[in-house]
Amino acid sequence: MISLIFATDPNHLIGKDNDLPWNYSEDLKYFKAKTLNKTVLMGLETFNSILSINGKPLPRRNLVVASLEPFSYPNVTVIDDLFKYLKQPHEEEIFIIGGKTIYELSFPYADRLYITHIKKEHKGNVYLNFNLDEFTLVSEDIRENLIFAVYERLK
Ligand SMILES: NC(=O)c1ccc[n+]([C@@H]2O[C@H](COP(=O)([O-])OP(=O)(O)OC[C@H]3O[C@@H](n4cnc5c(N)ncnc54)[C@H](OP(=O)(O)O)[C@@H]3O)[C@@H](O)[C@H]2O)c1
Questions:
Q1: What pTM value is reported for the model?
Q2: Superfamily for 2-153?
Q3: Is 21 in the pocket of ligand 1 (CB under 6 A)?
Q4: Which of 61, 64, 100, 118 can pair with 9 through a Cys bridge, CB separation 3.0 to 4.6 Å?
């Protein structure tokens, strides 16, 4: 199963340069709870951005990084053919964790979406093109500043 997990504001903003436009600890906790001990797939830009912000890759996840360039990092699986990977049968839930390029390329393969809807508009420069026409809302947790929503692809 392929799942995308991302946070977005009402204008579909997801990034500011190579970082997030906001800092909601609730959302970081949610992200951690969903992805801990799971396989997470990200583009090289997102991998490098996490590395420069945290000084290390995301701990306690099975890390997969998509790159068309030769790249290697200890304990990271590097894939150069994203579509081949997405089309393979995956028994476990694979979490796509960004960024813009990898989300948009993976969107047609997504079975489930974990979207954190940030209620307030923010400033930034990276927007995600997506629509939810082929998805149905399966759960919603409404908080003061954000909404944790889960969608599944219509059969
Ligand atoms: N709001 C959120 O939840 C959230 C989460 C994560 C990230 N973000 C934001 O997303 C932004 C970064 O997005 P981005 O688009 O610049 O980078 P990205 O999606 O993290 O990485 C893009 C990289 O993926 C590789 N790639 C592209 N097509 C591929 C393919 N077909 N097969 C294998 N690898 C492929 C390329 O690597 P090479 O160049 O090495 O070939 C490309 O540079 C940042 O602003 C970040 O803050 C937001």
A1: 0.96
A2: Dihydrofolate Reductase, subunit A (3.40.430.10)
A3: no
A4: 118
